[in-house]
Specification:
CATH superfamily: MFS general substrate transporter like domains
CATH class: Mainly Alpha
Number of strands: 3
Structural class: mainly alpha
Low-confidence stretches: 1-9, 457-470
Distance between the termini: 46 Å
Length: 471
């Protein structure tokens, strides 16, 4: 085999020369390679999200099959994957620069066989102790880690001017895996799709709950093979742990992490809790509508990134948090008066704002670090600017993964908050009020650090267009 087929030349497994900000390179070489990697990254990430949230569906069926778990314990089963997924995002973020985007996509996709197998086996055994079921739920967090590595990887492939839409599309393709899960799995639970000893229907409803795990097997295999055949590793993305760890000392890393808890943390937390929340707050409703929340939130995400590309991430994020607060207030009102149509409408608006904010906050990160590094070398010449841009790209990728890990904590905090609120008061209102107060802090932080005029005025003249409203 020609060495260029495996290393060096664009299209090889390892690509040494990658210059997406060079217009000629991007048009003739870079764009089709980036698009191909994006497509397979979306598939792998889509499956990661589906597996990550599989317990949001499984937990609602366990009582019917004779599992003696309380409502609070069921919310914990939904929440545990969120916590483990958040923790897994830290090593997953650093895996791409260490092992390569293609290589890690293959590994991370293959790891999804672990949680799917445990689901398939344990849900057929009502005698399973709670601690073991909780441990199995924890392994679903492996799917949550996929997002961090996928976003970090794709950020290297695209030029800064197109990062907002590309990252938004990548994230939306992954996020919508939650909706796919919550729409399809309730359907396939009635189908004996695998003729195995696990294929015996369970409970009085005769459901094949094990299909919640078995259904994903062929798709996971497809993702592994597709990544191996069609994806690439970028030499320019490689860096050691010490180089990436520098982001922990950046103020903006922590501010953006807090904001991302408000956007993505809300999306993943609400997505995990929504099916069980509907059953506990409106038990009279029997139609499966839980998938709608994750669907509209996922679809909204690339539009948030696209609008941020046009008018600025800080501006979009600021007003989006205002809208999130208003939508949350609406949800609280309709829970209080027990109006299902109003509750559903307000919650869907809230889901849309979580997706929109996901796109705009992630758009902010590359621009913030690009601006800072260019400011540091202002007036030092083209070579200094080139090095600064390369450093900014590596740090941005690390921050994308780091903030996604912090933000994913919402996948644990929100279901646990709902569970505690319902256990203490019988209603979700107390938890929702806490979320509303949190969004107020997000509005304040976004305005203070990025949206107000004084926050933009410190940049050099050459960067004012980036700083003023376009962060």
């Amino acid at each position: 085999m020609d060495m260029n087929a495996s290393r060096g030349a664009p299209g090889g497994r390892w690509i040494d020369e990658w210059h997406p900000d060079d217009d000629e390179f991007w048009k003739t070489t870079g764009k089709p390679i980036a698009r191909r990697n994006l497509i397979w990254s979306i598939l792998a990430e889509h499956l990661g999200f589906s597996v990550w949230l599989v317990w949001s569906v499984v937990a609602t069926r366990l009582p019917k099959l004779g599992f003696p778990y309380s409502t609070d314990e069921l919310f914990s089963l939904v929440a545990i994957p969120g916590l483990i997924g958040a923790l897994m995002r830290f090593p997953y973020t650093f895996a791409v620069p260490r092992f390569g985007g293609r290589n890690w996509t293959m590994v991370s996709a293959a790891l999804l066989f672990i949680p799917t197998t445990l689901v398939a086996v344990l849900v057929t055994r009502p005698s399973t102790p709670y601690w073991l079921m909780a441990a199995a739920a924890g392994t679903a967090g492996l799917g949550g880690g996929n997002f961090a590595s996928s976003m970090a990887n794709i950020s290297f492939f695209y030029p800064d001017r197109e990062k907002g839409f590309a990252l938004g599309l990548n994230a939306a393709g992954g996020n919508i895996g939650v909706s796919t899960l919550q729409l399809l799995i309730p359907i396939v639970l009635g189908m004996p799709i695998f003729n195995l000893y696990l294929g015996k229907p369970q409970g009085p409803s005769h459901i094949y709950l094990q299909n919640a795990g078995l259904f994903w097997y062929p798709l996971i295999a497809l993702a592994v093979l597709g990544a191996a055949r069609y994806m690439n590793n970028l030499t320019s993305a490689r860096s050691n742990f010490k180089d990436q760890l520098v982001i922990a000392g950046r103020k903006d890393t922590w501010v953006m992490a807090w904001l991302y808890i408000g956007t993505f943390g809300s999306f993943i937390g609400y997505s995990a809790a929504f099916p069980l929340l509907l059953k506990t707050q409106f038990p009279e409703m029997t139609v499966n509508l839980a998938f709608l929340g994750a669907l509209v939130g996922s679809v909204a995400r690339p539009f948030g990134g696209k609008l941020a590309d046009r008018i600025g991430g800080a501006r979009v994020t600021l007003w989006n948090f205002v809208a999130m607060g208003l939508a949350t207030f609406g949800v609280i009102h309709f829970v209080h008066v027990h109006s299902f149509p109003g509750f559903l409408a307000a919650f869907l608006v809230l889901f849309v704002t979580t997706g929109f904010g996901n796109g705009s906050t992630f758009r902010m990160i590359p621009v913030i670090f690009r601006r800072q590094h260019l400011a540091a070398v202002h007036g030092q010449g083209a070579e200094a600017e080139r090095v600064a841009l390369a450093t900014a790209r590596r740090e941005s990728a690390a921050v994308l993964g780091f903030t996604s890990a912090i933000g994913a904590c919402g996948g644990f905090l929100i279901p646990r908050s709902f569970g505690a609120s319902i256990k203490a008061t019988g209603s979700a209102e107390a938890a929702l009020l806490g979320f509303l107060l949190f969004y107020v802090t997000c509005v304040a932080l976004t305005w203070w650090f990025y949206a107000r005029r004084a926050a933009a005025s410190s940049a050099p003249d050459m960067l004012q267009s980036l700083a003023q409203g376009r962060v």
